[in-house]
Amino acid sequence: MRPLRVTVAFFFAPILAFAGQATSARAALSESRYSRAHSLGDNYSFDPRDGWQSVNVTNLEYKYRRNTSNGDRSHSISDKKSTAHPKSGLGTTISNVVKGVFQGLKGFGKPEPVTITWYTGHDLENPSCWANGKWAPTDESFACALTMEGWTTRPKCFKFLELCKTSKKCVFVRVVDTCAGCAAGSKHVDLTKAAFGQLANFDEGILTVQLRAATEPEGWYEKLWGPKVDDKD
């Protein structure tokens, strides 16, 4: 009977290997729904009744240095403008992803105009939404920082937002930080490089895009958005 056991083992080994590859492929496909720009369709119309708002987008490459005495950021403009694109490392591009996206993340809410830029480097460290330094975004995260003072209706920490340059180029980001260096009272959203890079080249000037609030996704990818939190956290 030993030859039979060996034959059975060899028979099932390729099946198990294939199943493992299929699981990995499904996981990569699922994550790419959130780390790549998605489309709303050819005939989609940005209607304020659906929560859309006009947004000015720039690539001023603001730099922040956190003040260790109060945890805030100071604001300045870098000497050089980067035109390099971030490394993706987040899965492969897929077609027709909007169906998968809207099974979890979905835009909604009241529109309001905001300005958008992008940040990188040390500016990513110690996001204010976590008091204990539990997590920090990277250039490949899909996260943002919002004006710290004067934007009374700004989305709260850990909320999701949807940004669209066109109906065929949209991304979702999570609020993880505040921007003390952004002008007080301004409605300013600072994006990580991966999120901004899905909407436009870094060497583009001022853009006009659409923004609205979004629901939480069904699946969760900590490297994109950071750890989940309880309502009482």
Low-confidence stretches: 4-13, 15-19, 56-102
Number of separate helices = 4
Main sheet record: 7 strands, mixed, barrel
Global shape: globular
Task: Provide the gyration radius in Å.
Answer: 21 Å
User: Could you give the order of the helices and strands?
Assistant: HEEEHEEEEEEHEH
- Provide the helix percentage: 10-25%
Mean pLDDT: 70
Distance between the termini: 60 Å
Structural class: alpha/beta
Strand order, main sheet: write it out. 1-5-9-6-8-7-10
The tally of strands reads 10
Strand fraction equals 25-35%
Describe, in plain words, how this protein is organized in 3D.
By secondary structure, the chain is an alpha/beta fold. Helix content is 21%, strand content 25%. The chain has four helices and ten strands, in the order αβββαββββββαβα. The strands form two sheets. A seven-stranded mixed barrel has the order 1-5-9-6-8-7-10. A two-stranded antiparallel ribbon has the order 2-3. This is RlpA-like protein double-psi beta-barrel domain-containing protein.
Topology:
Blueprint: H1 2-35, E1 53-57, E2 62-66, E3 73-77, H2 98-101, E4 107-108, E5 114-119, E6 143-147, E7 160-166, E8 169-179, E9 188-192, H3 193-199, E10 207-214, H4 222-225
Parallel strand pairs: 1-5, 5-9, 6-8
Antiparallel strand pairs: 1-10, 2-3, 4-10, 6-9, 7-8, 7-10
Protein name: RlpA-like protein double-psi beta-barrel domain-containing protein
Pfam families: DPBB_1
Region (Disordered): 67-91
